[in-house]
Amino acid sequence: MLTSNDPPALGPSPAPLDAAIARAVDALFQLQHPDGYWWGELQSNVTITAEVLLLHRVWGTFDRVPRAAAETYFRGEQRQHGGWELAYGDGGELSVSIEAYMALRLLGVPQIDPALVRAREFILVRGGISRSRIFTKMHLALVGAYEWAGLPSLPPWLMVLPDRGPLSIYDLSSWARGSTVPLILLFDRKPVYTPLLNLSELYAEGRANARFALPAANDAFERFFNGVDSVLKFTERIGIVPFRKRGLELAEKWTVERQEHTGDWGGIIPAMLNAMLALRAIGYDVNDPVVVRGFAAIDAFTITADGSYRVQPCISPVWDTGLAVRALTDAGVRRDDSRLVSAASWLLDKQIVARYGDWSVKNRTGKPGGWAFEFENAWYPDVDDTAVVAMALAAVDHPQPKRVRGAIARAAQWVATMQCKTGGWGAFDVDNDKDWLNRIPYGDLKAMIDPSTADVTARVLEMITRCRVDDFDTARFGRGLTFLLNEQERDGAWFGRGGVNYVYGTSGALAALGPMQPGWTTDISTHAIDEAVVRGAVWLKSAQQADGGWGESTASYRDRSLRGIGPTTASQTAWALIGLLACAERLPQIADAFMPSIERGVDYLLRKQRTDGNWDEPEFTGTGFPQHFYLNYHYYRLHFPLTALGRYAALRERTVSAS
Fold first, then answer.
1. pLDDT in tens, 334-345
2. Rounded distance, CA 217 to CA 226, Å?
3. Known active-site residue 384
4. Which of 95, 117, 296, 659 has CA atoms 20 to 30 A from the CA of 265?
């Protein structure tokens, strides 16, 4: 272990540091809504907007789309190579590019347009439509650009399987479940809507030569599931589908019941779009209240700015508000500041205390007490948001302290019951870990389950420690801590499920372990935790780049040799600093070994800060589904650097006071 008896060195002078913090604080407060919350844009790739355009075409509501603004958006997102990206700077992706091409054709752009000529070249070189993902093919099938025969079956009898049996819809992750159940209705009807869209030019082998079948299996697992799919298709052709009528009735009932009063499903666009497609397929009218609310919800996810029309995959006000409050309190804003109190009051009102959501199917002991990601999503609170909000509330001096303590206690009790058999926590469900579901033909995004992860588990442990939840079950805490320590990789890093990637995961783990007191360690030695913290900090230090910052691209999810490698960004630099500062907080006797790295990181943030207090960051540092879906949280570039600078300033102050 690194050791030093010298006090940590002092880095950047207080004046520039304090000025940078003040600018960032002002910038963040300027973004606060009058009702108390923060809500930043959540950016993804262009497929979300393309699929919304297709939905309007299917419903006959295409006149609602601002065509010129939509065309501006798609043209602006096309890159020089001709394609469209999954995440910023990734070189372009086949399925994303096909859906963008489809959208421009829906908007009336002719094949001979130079943008489409370049796009077509990009797409064909990569194999064309036949090599695209299942969901791209599904959307194309709706307008006759692909054949339903090439898509997997979704048998209605899935809906009649017992909830707690060996297989049910509740073995799917919340996001997969909310997207899949309505598709049972759609795949049963297999509709094709006119006017048809001819995209034959995107078949590399020519449409006449295309093989409309599932991709060839690569191993025994895939061969087995492809064989099962062949049997299911055969039963459909001969008209013998067990429990078809009952399954379809249950799928419709389930879909309609899970629409929030705001009109959305699950708070995510894929579930919303699939529900709306399903309702269209089974004959709902465009003026039906369920459909009207659905379109209103989609409109609420839409952004029209700078002459551009785009749709967010989700909205994140609870998440943004919790993280903003934490950043501001870390930056030294008075805990009783009226603006923080307003934010805390808004968060308190958003706690879900009445509805037993889908989580209660596998968790029969928990009582509601979590928070969701969005404005309204009572069916799906999640563990990560709940932990962040609890810590935010604990950081504010609210005029109703009893109410705050009660909210945190309910949250901790709910989170405790969400612990998985592994000892860790997933996001939305308990023991949602049947990995074989990712091997079925339908699951080509490899996102069918919601298993325990290091980053969510770390957030829970950090919540328990920072909120001083003294009555949290010690055995549960110990199991969670054991899980987190076991997830550390040989070089000291932790995988990041919710952010890109090892920089995020390692930061979160160290943020949890750093402030942990011996009383919480149960039978795990303090020495073992110290060793894990040092190894994590050493890895972060090793990943620092020449300019003083940290960066990691989404490519690290495909190639582990690229861990910690990528263009430096403000949010990832902040994450690394948060992790290193947690190490310094826990082990002041060795902090001096990491202070040069910390100071270079702080200097990077000071140099890169804009005059308005914010930072530039086009890169996608949020993760939806590793290798398949990434996010750019537009407030990450502001509140995470503010957190890091605030914690560094606090460390400086403690160091000066102690010297």
1. 999 999 999 999
2. 7
3. yes
4. 95
